[in-house]
Amino acid sequence: MKVFLIPPPALPLPAVKGGAVETLITHLLEENEAQGKLELVCASIPDPEAQARTYTRSRVLYLPRPEDTLSIKIRRVIRRLKGCPPSIDPWYFAVEEAVKAEQPDFILAEGGNLNEPALICRWMGKERSLFHLHGETIGSPHLAKYYGGGLILSDYVKQVFLEGCPIPPEKARILPNCIDLDRFGPLSPARRQEQRKALGYAPEDFVAVYCGRIAPDKGIDQLLEAFLEISDPSVKLLIVGSPFFGAAATDPFMESLQAKGKALGDRIRFTGYIPNENLKEYYGAANLSCVPSVCQEAAGLVAIEAMACGLPVAATRSGGMPEYLEGSGSVLVDQGSGLPHRLAQAITALKSDPERRAEMSVLGLETARRYGRPAFYETFVSHLEEFQKEC
After folding, report:
1. Does domain 2-178+372-390 have CATH number 3.40.50.2000?
2. CA-CA distance, 271 to 242, in Å (whole number)?
3. How large a percentage of the chain has pLDDT more than 90?
4. Of 135, 200, 220, 318, which is least packed with CB atoms within 10 Å of its CB?
């Protein structure tokens, strides 16, 4: 079965510059190398570092963005005449040509603006056009004209999407996200001690780590406010990430956090962007992972990474997070007014209860094992085979 993956044209594939969607697609490409059950073709924007990597059972097509010429303008008019939503990014016209050349069994719109591949869906046929939702997506009735079904990372996201899109519920199949369990795991005691020392932490320090994109909806400002409320000088905050993965080092929000964080002195540390393959070292240096999102998180992948490294987790009760953390013993706090105080209470309570943290660590490791890359790939293939039988 040949499957053509269409990601948004923001970051390259494989995920040399990070990106949640791009990392997940990279897991698919790499697991397909191991299991080889599909012929995967994936579109990507060009990038020299990404293009240096090669696959034997999958192919990545590096498609430059066409110039916005008269020809592109005419094609936009044709889209409208065929009843498709207006195209915003001319890159999808290059993807359309590639799909026609490849003649895949299915196309899979990997997140992004699901309207953009509409003309490709018209050419492929609705039953062979699928979506893969990686985040909360508001469904709309016209999407049911182009897509015959899709894969969705959590039941929470499924319910939100189907409220606006009349696709039959059985055609929207749950595919939980995954992590590379070979990449994430507890550090040895000696390595953990070395990493904590390298980051400037004393043995008695209690380190909470936030790992992820630095953006207002992730609640990092709320977490920082929580630390300003905590007077214990041994409770420290490690912030790992940047505003847009490897593509942006700072922005006004990041700068405002750094300015506010000066009040904490050496109790706060910003690392900037850290590649996915190195995150284990930073999780391993901490005592607790905090996921203080103020948005409705589609899933809890960052929390799964932390648990795979042996960390207990304190997170907000948001979106699909409870689904992913079920059975882990993680602490969930309510969003809304007073969130910094609730986070501060959770952090200080866990600091004073090492037995509970140890129990959470064991349960978290067991939970994380449900989200390995092989299981993700096998479920992905199984769903596609079901769609193929139904065509």
Report:
1. yes
2. 8
3. 87
4. 200
Q: Which residues contact 89 (CB under 8 A, 6 or more apart)?
A: 9, 65, 113, 116
The enclosing H or E element of 156 equals: helix 155-164
Residues 361-381: tens digit of each pLDDT: 999 999 999 999 999 999 999
Burial tier of 192 (Cβ tally within 10 Å: 0-12, 13-18, 19+): middle
Confidence of residue 164 (pLDDT cuts 50, 70, 90): very high
Task: Give the residue extent of every domain in the chain.
Answer: 2-178+372-390, 189-370
* pLDDT bracket for residue 79 (50, 70, 90): low
Cβ 267 vs Cβ 9: under 8 Å = no
How far apart are alpha carbons 42 and 284 in whole angstroms? 34
Average pLDDT, the chain: 94
Tell me the one-letter amino acid at 159: Q
Residue with tokens 């699901």, as numbered in its chain:
114
In a 10 Å sphere around its CB, with 0-12 CB exposed, 13-18 middle and 19+ buried, how is residue 165 labelled? buried
Sheet harboring 39-44: ordered strands across? 58-62, 39-44, 2-6, 106-110, 129-133, 149-152, 172-174
pLDDT band at residue 250, thresholds of 50, 70 and 90? confident
Name the DSSP letter for residue 372: B
- Residue 247 structure tokens: 């593509």
Order of strands, sheet of 331-333, starting from the edge strand that comes earlier in the sequence = 268-272, 235-240, 206-211, 288-291, 313-316, 331-333
User: Is the pLDDT assigned to residue 88 strictly greater than 90?
Assistant: no
Distances (CA, A) of 168 to 23, 128, 141, 146: 29, 15, 12, 14
Q: Which residues contact 289 (CB under 8 A, 6 or more apart)?
A: 208, 209, 210, 211, 283, 302, 303, 306, 307, 311, 312, 313, 314
> What pLDDT does residue 71 have?
67
281-317 pLDDT, tens digit each: 999 999 999 999 999 999 988 999 999 999 999 999 9
pTM of the model: 0.86
CATH topology agreement for domains 2-178+372-390 and 189-370:
yes
Topology classification of domain 189-370: Rossmann fold (3.40.50)
Residue 45 backbone dihedrals phi, psi, to 5 degrees: -70, 150
What is the amino acid identity at position 318? Answer: S
Farthest CA pair distance, the chain: 67
State the Cα–Cα distance between residues 250 and 247, nearest whole angstrom. 10
